[in-house]
Design goal:
- The structure holds two protein chains of two kinds.
- By secondary structure, chain A is mainly α.
- Chain A contains seven helices and one strand, in the order βααααααα.
- Chain A is globular, with a radius of gyration of 16 Å.
- Chain B has two domains: about 180 residues, FAD/NAD(P)-binding domain, CATH 3.50.50; about 150 residues, FAD/NAD(P)-binding domain, CATH 3.50.50.
- Classes of the chains: A mainly alpha, B alpha/beta.
């Protein structure tokens, strides 16, 4: 069937639906590292990120999506992180961003 | 004989100016449209960023006005004014040596943002409604139950050309943070979401409270304006927004929507300004003579401003400004008497 292409398909809805998302993992992550909630979305982490400068990886976006219960491909995305910790050096809120990256991988590894 | 100064408005600004002037040897007369002194603060429960009960600030002011024997004309609206006094709606005039305009602001009518359903759906309330509910002792949904998910929307009637309110109302951001914390304290099991455009934490201790709301109370801040609220078959409210930090549309059902209503200019500012040859700022608030050295003076000698009549202000700013106003009035009175 995959050989047949009629030029159209069905898109998944793009909207984040908080009602249907399972927020348990997200809540667990925030319980373990409540400081993640203090993110002000400045993008310093992404700007300083080596992986983000070479690939599509956007750490700020991934952890924001995880907080909304959007876990799809978050684990794979986080694997792009080389855990160098530069993001942690620049975070103005003092968030242990490297720890966040590891926590997301730990929590979502079996997702 | 003591010089006499009429103060239009018996809210926090007017009372603070009157008390200061009285101590400086002036005879102040407060003209207040409502039957009681206190203005908007009277409807407030607790004040940001310290959660100080509003009554702890207001009651001493009202008590001092009484103790110092300051004349108050309540239930009387000022219709026209000049540097020589005011004319009341009743037709009566009060002559004076100077006039202070401290008539404050008007709360934005959230019904004008029809897409949020205020006045149409149950459980869509304004920040002012929430304060009233807290004053009455209980925040409950229309059916008497407790909310499990609450959203607060910033900038309702602020920074919005669609309702002719381009200005920032300044205090709603911190009010939203304060009320989110209060709601979380009342309902620890509930999820609280603040939908914001920018978070403007301009005052001492505000940013710290914002951070506390995030870190200690797990309040979720989503950057994006709610586009609409609609009723669901189960009585809840569905809201839609863009989560602009992820670039994705977002929707969720909630039990209660709190609209952080802005401060807009009084409708009668134009008439008052016209009666005395004063100027209005583009947003309808009264225009000061100069934003730096003449913030409490009008362009007209003998007419002064105090409080939120010139721009949205916090209570702390208003009380601080009242002393400046009294000072400027004294300078003027001294200059014309000699």
């Amino acid at each position: 069937m995959s050989g047949l292409r009629f030029g159209y398909g069905i898109n998944r809805p793009r909207a984040i639906d908080i009602d249907s998302n399972d927020l348990r993992k997200s809540n667990e992550i925030l319980r373990e590292m409540p400081e993640l909630q203090t993110c002000i979305g400045c993008g310093s982490c992404t700007a300083s990120c080596t992986a983000g400068n070479l690939t599509e990886f956007n750490f700020r976006r991934v952890h924001t999506l995880v907080r909304r219960g959007e876990y799809r491909s978050a684990y794979e995305e986080m694997n792009k992180c080389m855990l160098c910790g530069k993001c942690r050096l620049v975070c103005p809120r003092g968030i242990n961003t490297r720890g966040v990256a590891m926590l997301i991988k730990r929590k979502l590894g079996d997702f | 004989m003591k010089p006499k100064v009429v103060i239009a408005g018996g809210g926090a600004a007017g009372m603070a100016v009157a008390l200061r002037l009285e101590r400086l040897g002036v005879e102040p007369v407060i003209v207040e449209r409502e039957e009681r002194l206190g203005g908007k603060v009277r409807g407030w429960h607790k004040l940001f960023p310290t959660f100080t009960p509003a009554a702890e600030v207001l009651d001493p002011l009202v008590a001092q006005i009484g103790r110092r024997g300051i004349e108050c004309r309540t239930g009387a609206a000022v219709e026209a004014l000049s540097e020589h006094g005011v004319k009341l709606a009743s037709g009566q005039t009060i002559e004076a040596d100077a006039v202070v305009v401290a008539t404050g602001f008007t709360l934005f009518d959230a019904r004008r943002k029809e897409e949020y359903g205020y006045g149409i759906y149950d459980n869509v309330v304004t920040s002012a409604d929430l304060e009233r509910m807290m004053n009455e002792g209980a925040v409950r949904l229309a059916d008497g139950s407790t909310p499990r998910r609450i959203a607060l929307l910033h900038c309702v009637g602020s920074r919005d050309e669609k309702v002719c309110q381009r200005h920032c109302s300044k205090v709603c951001c911190i009010t939203g943070v304060k009320q989110a914390i209060e709601l979380k304290k009342m309902f620890p099991e509930a999820d609280v979401f603040n939908f914001y455009m920018d978070i403007r934490m301009f005052g001492a201790g505000y940013e710290e409270l914002y951070r506390e709301a995030q870190q200690s109370y797990n309040i979720h801040f989503v950057r994006g304006r709610i586009s609409e609220a609609s009723p669901m078959i189960n009585g809840r409210i569905q809201i839609k927004a863009e989560d602009t930090l992820t670039g994705r549309p977002l929707r969720m059902s909630i039990d209660m929507l709190v609209l952080l209503a802005g401060m807009r200019a009084n409708d009668d500012n134009a008439a008052l300004a016209a009666s005395a040859g004063l100027a209005l700022a583009p947003n309808g608030f009264m225009q000061s003579a100069d934003p730096f050295l003449g913030a409490v003076r009008s362009p007209r000698r003998g007419i002064f401003y105090a409080g939120a009549v010139t721009a949205p202000k916090s209570l702390a700013d208003t009380l601080a400004e009242a002393s400046l106003t009294a000072d400027a009035v004294m300078d003027y009175l001294n200059s014309v008497q000699r």
